[in-house]
Each structure stands twice: as structure tokens, then as C-alpha cells.
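User: Quick sanity check before I run a bigger batch. Here is a single chain. Can you write out its predicted 3D structure?
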Amino acid sequence: MADTPSLLYFGRDPRVPILNELGDGSRLDVNSTTTTTTTATMYTFKEHMFIQLYQAIQRCYKIHDEQHERYKAYYDQKATEIPLKVRDRVYIMKPNLGRNKSRALTPGYVGPL
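Assistant: Done. Predicted structure follows.
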């Protein structure tokens, strides 16, 4: 089941005009003007909507965790540990240059520390 951005953001799929004409039976029509819509039906619709949204969010979390583990495994394969000892002199990379500073004219490292 694919979750649309509209479902994740608004909690429901968008209403497409053709579905209103054909009468999509998979969803309850909350814009119905008939008097048969009762409070119980609206409560059931809201409950269904919240359950559907919760399940979609849980699927997103699961996919995110799987991707995180995949990227971590890839990074760990290529990462190497650098053995440092006490009193070793090292340079520390400084990626934040600040505002209105040229990358070419400012040192990218601090040190030796």
C-alpha cells in the first residue's frame, strides 16, 4: 500500500472529482448532504481516518529505520579508526565559515591542538 503525501500531511487522500461522480465505495463521503449521516457514522469515519494515518506514519518510521541501518552499514564498511595517543597534535576541520566569508581565503582547519 503506497501512502500519498496528502494522506501523511492531511490525514486523508484528496477528493478527486471523478470519485465524487462514480461514488467511490472505499471511503465515507463526509461532504454528503443527505440526512442519513449520523454521529456514529462520523465517529466511525474519524476513527478509521486516525487508524489509517497512524498506520501510515508507522510504515514511514519503519522505512526510515531500515534506510538508517543501510546507510550506517555502508558508512561502517568504509570508515577507519585513526589511532591517536595522548599528546598527539591534530587539526580539527572547521566547516562553518560564518557569514560573508570566502572559502578560499579562510583556513578550513584549526590547530594543531
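The radius of gyration is 27 Å.

User: Great, the batch can go ahead then.
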